[in-house]
């Protein structure tokens, strides 16, 4: 194999990505501590409070199903007795915790973009054009996304997270934690309650599923959604995740100030040139300049750095 020297800008981006990955690695333990410690002076921070609120909401939904299956007379008393402990158990699952965090970042960033750039968080210019599409499938999918986006922001304000809106893998983890929490002797009841939940769960019909299906249906035309100003943050995140084979939660976290390197590399790996990457930074981080020489960074090198997680291979 041919050894290709790493350029100065690649060294900068690799180091920035490594720093961002270290932050991501420490994120779950830090968040877990904050949401578990009500007395912490930082507990009233909106992000932390919303994460804990979402977990409490999920716990309440599970316990209501359990109470219904068990024939409990006072369902709300049953929920109140166990919600806080179950929520703490759920937040012990890193994937669930980071998903709650990513959703919170999505809502807050979308609201910030609305205030600063006038980007409607529910119906972006691209979504408006998709609703008007002559393709009935595209138009119908866009209308479903519009409705789901409106619900998402309402749920965010109420710190809610419908169990049926969870990604499939996290839905499974949540149910597993709940069964463990319920303990011995509840197997029949929890099995019945779980059957009810699974019978109405359709990952593709949830908001994230609808966004993913739209990206897939658009094919190459989905690239237009990688403009935050045109696609809106939610469609942008789903498209970026698809284009770079990252999870949607990681794509959302890449928009934060601690993940500048990941965002720049992701946009470059998705095929954006230097000018196009700068345009997106103007929306998300207007005070940040790309490093000198970024325009020389090849798409394949950016993609390889993302796959390596900051540890860029020396040979290709």
Describe this structure in words.
The structure is a single chain. The protein contains 14 helices and no strands. The protein starts with 7 loop residues before the first helix and ends in an 8-residue tail after the last helix. The protein has 316 residues and is mainly α. The chain has helices spanning 8-36, 46-70, 75-91, 94-117, 125-131, 136-157, 168-182, 187-199, 207-218, 228-244, 248-253, 260-269, 274-284, 299-308. Helix 1 (8-36) crosses helix 2 (46-70) and helix 1 packs across helix 12.
Beta-strand fraction estimate: under 5%
Uncertain residue ranges: 39-44, 310-316
Main structural class: mainly alpha
DSSP summary, beta strand count: 0
First and last CA, distance: 6 Å
Name the helix and strand elements from N-terminus to C-terminus, one letter apiece. HHHHHHHHHHHHHH
Specify the helix fraction band: 55-70%
Largest sheet: none
């Amino acid at each position: 194999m041919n050894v290709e020297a790493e350029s100065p800008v690649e060294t900068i981006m690799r180091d920035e990505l490594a720093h961002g990955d270290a932050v991501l690695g420490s994120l779950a333990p830090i968040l877990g501590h904050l949401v578990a410690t009500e007395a912490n002076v930082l507990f009233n921070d909106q992000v932390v409070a919303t994460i804990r609120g979402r977990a409490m909401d999920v716990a309440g939904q599970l316990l209501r199903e359990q109470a219904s299956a068990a024939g409990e007379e006072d369902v709300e008393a049953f929920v109140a007795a166990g919600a806080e402990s179950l929520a703490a158990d759920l937040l012990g699952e890193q994937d669930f915790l980071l998903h709650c965090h990513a959703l919170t970042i999505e809502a807050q960033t979308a609201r910030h973009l609305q205030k600063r750039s006038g980007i409607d968080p529910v119906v972006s210019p691209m979504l408006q054009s998709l609703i008007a599409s002559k393709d009935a499938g595209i138009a119908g999918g866009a209308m479903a996304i519009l409705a789901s986006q409106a619900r998402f922001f309402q749920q965010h304000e109420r710190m809610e997270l419908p169990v049926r809106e969870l990604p499939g893998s996290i839905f499974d983890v949540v149910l597993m934690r709940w069964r463990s929490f319920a303990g011995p002797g509840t197997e029949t009841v929890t099995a019945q309650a779980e059957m009810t939940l699974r019978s109405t769960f359709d990952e593709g019909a949830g908001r994230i599923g609808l966004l993913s299906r739209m990206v897939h249906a658009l094919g190459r035309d989905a690239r237009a959604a990688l403009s935050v100003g045109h696609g809106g943050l939610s469609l942008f995140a789903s498209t970026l995740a698809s284009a770079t084979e990252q999870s949607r939660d990681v794509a959302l976290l890449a928009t934060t100030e601690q993940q500048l390197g990941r965002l720049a590399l992701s946009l470059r790996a998705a095929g954006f040139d230097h000018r196009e990457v700068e345009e997106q930074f103007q929306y998300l981080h207007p005070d940040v300049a790309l490093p000198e020489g970024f325009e020389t960074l090849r798409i394949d090198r950016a993609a390889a750095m993302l796959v390596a997680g900051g540890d860029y291979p020396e040979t290709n």
